[in-house]
Amino acid sequence: MRNCFYKQSQHYSCFFSSLNYLINRAKIYSRLHSENLSIMKDGVYYSEYLQLDKILNAQELESDKAGREHAHDEMLFIVIHQSYELWFKQILYEVSSVMDILAQPNISDNSPDLFVAHHRLKRVATILTILVDKINILETMTPLDFLDFRNMLRPASGFQSIQFKLLEAHLGLRMNQRFGKEYYTSQLKPEDKKIIEDVEKKKPLIDLVNEWLERMPFFDDSNFWEGWKSDGPEHPFWQKYREAYTSSLQEVEKFNLKRFEELFFSKEKNKDWNLSSDARRAALFIVLYRDYPLLQMPFQIINTLLEIDNTISTWRFRHVNMVHRMIGMRTGTGGSTGKDYLQGALNSHHIFKEFAELTTFMIERNKLPKLSPALCVRLGFGK
Ligand code: HEM
Disulfide-capable partner of 208 in 6, 7, 61, 102 (CB 3.0 to 4.6 Å)? Predict the structure, then answer.
């Protein structure tokens, strides 16, 4: 019996403490709520800050217009494109800021600049991987669902995406390198065409990277290279490197030597190249000796540019496959041949491919020419 009473009183005390707890929570909630109400009057309000009234009211279905039949999947089609455009905006914002950093005549190794540039490029690469994955969502729409509204969209097409074209132009895809250049801007309104033409006249990111690499300081400092003279024979590092590279090649690969000479030691920059020979030598040196602290960040920048190029290619690949599945071999709403045009762009629109090609001219770590002690110190974080 005693035992039972004890259990009961424990039960009551538990009930009262829970009640107290709830009353206290209610008081806190009501205080916070009234404080929030005053914040609402004076401070920033979520939906106003994000201007959600504009964004959430910007989905007007063509299939809902008078006399047409509502096509359920058109909403998904609009939302996907709008969200792509928002991310393109963010990417352009990041790329432009990196271009501003690299446009400086000198970037000090001791300043935050290179770290900031790399951090932002990495963000661009991360956004792009998400943009590839978003195709999965659109692929939940079947070709038959698409046909419910496709013909109402003509001649609109992603081909008219100014932000996508701006991104290509900012990164460094030039008009003469484009597949289907004859009609590349033909589907644009004159004011949009002008925007693209103006950007194409400016230096793109790849040119700024080229100039930054050309400025790499270590090769022409006689403290680092015994016997080197500016008016002397070829630089001792590259003499040794050529020997090591030559002996690394199989008999059937020897033809690469001619290409090595042409790419790395030409006096003039070939008009089809994005990188000059000076820049290429600097990039190869960075990639090979990237374990030295001072070369880590330049290496990460080169690597991230390659990642960006690869991810854009992956997006093109996923997009062309989706297009094939969605419209077969029919022409695009933007008037191109459709799948064939997109396949051509996928094959040829690589902006940073010259960094990928450096691999052809690399040798094993243990065969690399040894650097002088003075240069090793210079490439470290101090003595
Ligand atoms: C049902 C889905 C889609 C179909 C069938 C489709 C179809 C096409 C076709 C046929 C083209 C070639 C130009 C033309 O003649 O229209 C094209 C280009 C393009 N589309 Fe799409 N597309 C789809 C979804 C998307 C999405 C979600 C985006 C995201 C922004 C997008 C962005 C682009 C871009 C940027 C181009 C130009 C590519 C270049 O010039 O290299 N498309 N699309």
Answer: 102
